[in-house]
Amino acid sequence: MGRAMRKTLLLSVLVLALLWSASRLLARPVPPHPWFVPRTGEHAPLVFAHQGGEGQWPSNTMLAFEQATAAGADVLDADMHLTLDGVPVLIHDQTVDRTTDGSGALRDLTLAQVEQFDAGYNFSPDGGSTFPWRGKGLTVPTLEALFVRFPDSRFGIEIKQADPDLAARTFCALIRQYDMEDQVLISSFRQSNMDAFRRECPAVATSATEEEVRWFYILFRLGLRDPRTPPYQSFQIPESAGGFHLLTPRFIGAAHARGLPVQPWTINEPADLQRIIGLGVDGINTDYPERLLELVQEEAIEPGG
């Protein structure tokens, strides 16, 4: 190895050492947010009812949210779209086709049209043999109706495909109208949605976007920390993504070192739920909240639990 190459290598090592030291010294925990303040009677980890518990009840319906609340879920998880006339409604897909007897994209339908559809039409607990909620009056609810019906609940709401600025203004106005700033945790796959929402509603807690998770994970794998304070307050992540196993004890520890709770989705099988509880996560989003509730309650009553 020549002298010039040795100097280059030494300089590279010094630069990496400086980066490592700076990232450790300058990185600070995320300031605590009221959404994460422990509540009396809550579970550890928090039980998120994904879409209200779509494995047990029709997705994103008032019935599902009511049943999940009655069962004891800690967080009501929902998905928000805007209708053609700009009303935030709760439904997972961009279209109404999968979960209702209607057809069409939310962006092309008015609220009045959406409310005509049967939101329980396609729900079947037995793989299509029966459809117990057809014709029972279930409709696609508005976000406002959710806030009115559950004024004291804690929510996790994902902003779906929508005009980012319009969605942010409309959503934030409702949050402020119903004093929900401390009760809503926002997520979105689209960075543009999240950027617009954070500008409009900076006091409301948000989860990391896919892009933000990727950057944190790269630094974590390099043994570095971003010295900047993250603009988010939690990680809502799958167990694996892009060929990488994200949900490991080391990743969870790195997140916790920055004051960031880890809330994986969507975990459904009892064995998987039990295993992930054991990793020390802070919440689990599941289609079957009653399964998770049974497991966390068992953990809580064990000696020393």
Which CATH top level class fits?
Alpha Beta
Mean pLDDT across all amino acids: 92
Number of strands: 9
How many structural domains?
Answer: 1
Give the amount of beta strand, in percent.
5-15%
CATH superfamily: Phosphatidylinositol (PI) phosphodiesterase
The gross shape turns out to be globular
Distance between the termini: 58 Å
CATH architecture: Alpha-Beta Barrel
Q: In DSSP terms, counting alpha (H) and pi (I) runs of 4 or more, how many helices?
A: 10
Strand count, sense and barrel status of the largest sheet are: 7 strands, mixed
CATH structural fold name: TIM Barrel
The helicity comes to 25-40%
Keywords:
globular, two-stranded antiparallel ribbon, TIM Barrel, alpha/beta, 11% strand, 10 helices, 305 residues
Description:
- This protein has 305 residues and is of the alpha/beta class.
- The chain has a single domain, classed as TIM Barrel.
- It is 36% helix and 11% strand.
- The protein has ten helices and nine strands.
- Strands 1, 2, 3, 4, 5, 6 and 9 form a seven-stranded mixed β-sheet that branches.
- Helix 5 packs across helix 6 (191-200).
- The protein is globular and about 80 Å long.
- The model has no long low-confidence stretch (mean pLDDT 92).
